[in-house]
Amino acid sequence: MKKFKKIYIEITNICNLNCSFCSKVEKPKRTMTKEEFTHILSEIKPYTDNIYLHVKGEPLLHPNLIDFLHIAEEHNIKVNLTTNGVLFPRKVNELAKCNSLQKINFSLHSENNVPNYLEDIFNSVENLKDKTIIYRLWTLQNGKFDEKSTRTVEKIIDYYKLSPEIVEKIYNENNVKITSTIYVDKDNEFVWPDDNKEETTNGFCMALKTQIAILVDGTVVPCCLDSNGKIPLGNIYQEPFESIVNSKRCQDLKKSFQDRKPCEKLCLSCTYKNRFK
Q: What is the pLDDT of residues 219-251, one digit of tens each?
């Protein structure tokens, strides 16, 4: 069995939106090259069969995204992609031909003023019958939909002509299947970890147990929430991935999660670990 269930790869940290709930990118804006991406897949292949094109940035902005998906297929690696969906309608025909692409997560809570934004996504998804689609609504407050999320849900219900039973599930459950390949996933808005926070808590985390992340500049970090590389475990462009995951800092942090006493300040400030209680 491979060590990691998934490895996040940030192919660009550039985004076409500026959503208020997303933490700001402090690192220089950058886009990964095909050579860098190929190198990363060669390094991580012994450790996972699944990559997630997600940390920060909008992957559909990358000019070589389709090439990356073909490279992943050559390495027999499955790809999951997270997008705000703004560029999706103009990319869908190319994406439909990529066998490595298994799942697309749409952040429908993104802040944009694009006309017919939802309708264009729904219509375009019809071309992806063999891909899993997740419509995400991740800005709830205490489990409650705000006005915008409510409007989004109503449009989903109307477009897919959902039964009362499915509608009830959407309002009361998470990750609800609405067609054979499409799901609606809702969650509360989470606070990005901040190592400047005074308030800290102990707890368990799945970072380094089932997942790890690689930023666009090659920095390897414990998880996708360390988007600014505050816990650099090494750089995959400069040293073998095997050395990085077996390094003392990486192993010490992994053990600290198991002991429920994170040894890094950023992890102590992170409230996402509360979900693993």
A: 999 999 999 999 999 999 999 999 999 999 999
Residue 189's SS3 state is coil
Q: Are 105 and 134 in contact (CB under 8 A)?
A: yes
Rg (CA), the chain: 19
3-state secondary structure labels for all residues of 39-72: HHHHHHCCCCCEEEECCCCCHHHCCCHHHHHHHH
DSSP string, 137-187: EEEEBTTB--HHHHHHHHHHHHHHT--HHHHHHHHH-SSEE-SSSEEEEEE
The model's pTM is 0.96
Is residue 277 scored above 80 in pLDDT? no
Q: Which of 107, 97, 32 is nearest to 62 (CA)?
A: 32
Three-class SS state of 90? helix
Q: What are phi and psi of 207, to 5 degrees?
A: -60, 135
User: What are the tens digits of pLDDT across the range 115-153?
Assistant: 999 999 999 999 998 999 999 999 998 888 889 999 999
Greatest CA separation for the chain: 55
